[in-house]
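Take a specimen:
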Amino acid sequence: MNKNYNDPNGVELEERVIHIGRVSKTVKGGRNFRFSALVVVGDRNGNVGVGSGKAHEVPDAIRKGVESAKHNMMTVPLQGTTLPHEYIGNFGAAKVLLKPAVQGTGVIAGGAVRSILELAGVQDVTAKCLGTNNPNNVVNATVVALKAMRSPEQIAKKRDKAVSDIL
């Protein structure tokens, strides 16, 4: 489920629902059902956010997830159409391996990782989920990996060197 809408800042954001979970609580009168939604929001230009929402109805859970994702926006350093370097993100039992790829490769990734990378604007990458395939943990491991990415310019500035010395 994809939706496009304009952010008040003038940036057009796209949202994608990664996972909807149904949770039940047994009470005296029967079962009470609630829904949780895992949502990713991005502009396909290096900005992406992930959020989750819980509610009694699915649309409300998605709306809350989108609001949460907007608050958790981050910038992903891109080197052309791919990532600057390889990284393994860990979260719980999930490990996500992200590797840069040559132009024209496309996004080779599964489910949750694919959604995040596409909305972040990464066009050429190879990814592999290691360990668990729980969507929540895979998404968090992907976010950890993307937050750890550093562009050559950032590394050169930190080391007080020129970019040509780093590459």
Notes: The mean pLDDT is 90. Helices lie at 58-71, 111-120, 135-148, 152-159, 163-166. The chain has two domains: 4-74, 76-159.
